[in-house]
Amino acid sequence: MHPNPIMAEMMGKKTGVSGGKGGSMHIASRAHNMWGGYAIVGGHLPLAAGIAFASQYNDRKEVTISFIGDGATNNGYFHEAVNMSGVWKLPVVWIIENNFVAMGTRIEDSTAQTELHHRALGYGIKDGGRIDGQDVFAVYDSVSEAVEYARAGNGPVLIESITYRYKGHGVSDKSYDKRFADELAEWRDKKDPIELLRRELQKKYKGIDADLAKIDAACQAAVDEATEFALKSPDPTYEDLINNVYVEE
Ligand SMILES: Cc1ncc(C[n+]2csc(CCOP(=O)(O)OP(=O)(O)O)c2C)c(N)n1
Ligand SMILES: [Mg+2]
């Protein structure tokens, strides 16, 4: 997806991917088979199972990838969707992004099994293991393997990807940075995925710095352009507001 309509959606503008009515919780694009994020934690898992079922039912060689927070693995949607995906051998890759925290609740306070990939065993599906989510190459390799497995009709794979969050869940969580100060500094300064990738590339390719600087500048320019686009875009009108709310027959 192009960054412009994403930024516009974040600002509630008419040109946003969801017409400015979804906000940050509902960034979706059917044109890209990107089915969106959902405000209800875990609410997207049954949808992912359904989308994967449609692919299987219609004999399309598609694979659905569904991203789940560690906190989301403790609600009923997770159990119901992952269970059915195992029963029907659906072509879906479940990726748990374990950042050890759900809003402000530490994983140890919400589950006794903190190695979340072990949950695959309970549903009879393939355990894709616990991977280093900060390592781009590790993620690429594991997910590629899982996608091939699911595409070949073997059923779902569950991967646990370890990562970290640098800030509180929202602006109201002001104490997060202080509560986890030491740990946070360790992750941000030593394990940041973009920095790790940069160092890996610098080791592999001498003289890549000029190209990396170009990429940095291009990223910054894309964000600036998206911000300008969104700020200049019109707000939704009253007609937009009541449009797509009810089905018209
Ligand atoms: C069903 C439901 N319960 C509670 C909330 C409030 N809430 C929003 S995000 C969140 C924590 C999610 O944690 P996790 O799944 O670990 O995702 P993370 O933000 O860490 O990636 C909660 C409890 C919600 N949106 N939906
Ligand atoms: Mg989390």
Element order: H for helix, E for strand: HHEHEEEHEHEHHHHH
Assembly classification: single chain
Give the percentage of residues in beta strands. Answer: 5-15%
Structural class: alpha/beta
CATH topology of the domain at 38-204: Rossmann fold
Number of helices: 10
Write down how many β-strands occur, each being a DSSP E stretch of 2 or more residues: 6
Order of adjacent strands in the largest pleated sheet: 1-2-6-5
Bound molecules: thiamine diphosphate, magnesium ion
CATH class descriptor name of the domain at 38-204: Alpha Beta
CATH superfamily of the domain at 38-204: Thiamin diphosphate (ThDP)-binding fold, Pyr/PP domains
The averaged pLDDT comes out at 95
Radius of gyration, in Å, reads: 20 Å
Please provide a brief summary of the model:
The chain has 249 residues and is of the alpha/beta class.
